[in-house]
Specification:
Length: 365
């Protein structure tokens, strides 16, 4: 049996504006029923990549194939309407002079009764049946978004391209609509590429995340892998705040107040950053000036005093001044724990939660 071609296969796409490569050798492959989120800071080239795949922009180099059929390369360029692609943007407005029914039926062909059945089926899925005869101005923002989703999905596109589709919605509405959208897209077997600059949104929606920076994809994988095995310090910092402890390498090891860390591949005398997320620091109470016994897994405990604690609902954010050098570390702990400023506590850095990267300049993704 042969494996089916990916729904979307983009290879080595390039696009420049004013001599600057905005999309630089980007390759993406998405299978049926798979959701890929293209994630990255503002201006890194996400929307341009999406527009290239949609056919709204033309790449300078590269190839795009849908279900194994080339729609764009050096000698081929199919316009967007011939690519069987659904598009959804934040400000992708419904036609104001058409009813919800007419909007959703807009891209459908075939018999009237069949079209009406499809419209009703989709409106039921997005919980808008009672608005079938309403006009867009009679709907709330969230309802308009759901109607737009139904319209985009009505012709059963093989591929759906979404650019920040939920960013205009308030938080309460957003979670529900995201989940409904996810369910619908999965049920229809659509291959989805969604552009977002919000890591939480990408982790919630994506089967796979492609992290983009300065026109390039720097890391791709399941949300779990990007969060837990970031490729560099900036990739780690894109998903949450991070704590950074500097060290110098000697004989493949770097020694810190938290014990020794392996730094294989780093030259003697080079500086490294040991990175840990605030939720992965472990805390322990002070026992008259001593902490827990060091363990191979959790390393050596180091003493810190609480500088301030903030209650965030489900969690507390605790900021420490570390005894060994006065530096600041942050821990996120369940909110049942809200220690007072000045409280001495012991902090531990679990080896399997730490990442060792070469020290370098900060960047945003
Ligand atoms: N038509 C254009 N002409 C000139 N420059 C452009 C054009 N389209 C995009 N750019 C530039 O290319 C860069 C990438 O833009 P793009 O919209 O792809 O980024 P993005 O990652 O989607 O950002 P955002 O999240 O802010 O939408 C930006 O610096 C932008 O100004």
């Amino acid at each position: 049996m042969t494996t089916p071609a990916p729904r979307i296969e983009a290879t080595d796409l390039k696009r420049s504006f004013g001599g600057r490569a905005v999309v630089d050798d980007v390759s993406i492959s998405i299978g049926a029923g798979e959701i890929l989120c293209l994630l990255g800071p503002s201006g890194c080239g996400k929307s341009t990549t999406l527009r290239l795949i949609a056919g709204v922009e033309r790449p300078e180099a590269g190839r795009i194939a849908l279900d194994g059929v080339t729609v764009c390369d050096k000698s081929t360029f199919l316009p967007p309407e011939q690519r069987s692609i659904g598009l959804m943007f934040q400000d992708f407005a419904l036609f104001p002079h058409l009813s919800v029914c007419e909007n959703v039926a807009f891209g459908l062909t075939g018999k009237r009764a069949e079209k009406l059945n499809r419209v009703k089926e989709l409106l039921a899925r997005v919980d808008l049946e009672r608005h079938i005869n309403s006009y867009p101005h009679e709907l709330s923002g969230g309802e308009q978004q759901r109607a737009a989703l139904a319209r985009a999905l009505a012709p059963r596109p093989r591929v759906m391209l979404m650019d920040e589709p939920f960013s205009g919605l308030d938080n309460r509405l957003r979670d529900g609509i995201r989940d409904e959208t996810l369910g619908l897209l999965k049920d229809e077997g659509t291959a989805v590429m969604m552009v977002t600059h919000e890591p939480e949104e990408a982790m919630r929606m994506a089967d796979r995340i492609a992290l983009m920076r300065d026109g390039r994809i720097v890391q791709q994988g399941a949300p779990y892998n990007l969060y837990n095995s970031p490729i560099d310090k900036a990739a780690a910092a894109f998903f949450s705040d991070i704590n950074v402890i500097r060290g110098t390498v000697q004989g493949g090891l770097t020694r810190t107040a938290f014990g020794e860390f392996l730094a294989p591949g780093h030259a003697d005398g080079s500086h490294v950053d040991i990175v840990i997320r605030p939720q992965h620091l472990k805390l322990d109470f002070d026992r008259q000036g001593s902490g827990p016994l060091p363990t191979p897994r959790e390393g050596v405990p180091a003493m810190g005093r609480v500088r301030r604690s903030r209650y965030l609902g489900r969690e507390s954010l605790v900021e420490f001044e570390m005894a060994f050098d006065g530096s600041t570390l942050q821990a996120v702990v369940p909110s049942v724990f809200l220690p007072k400023p000045g409280t001495p506590l012991w902090l531990m850095m679990r080896r399997d939660r730490c990442h060792v990267f070469p020290s370098g300049p900060e960047s945003s993704a």
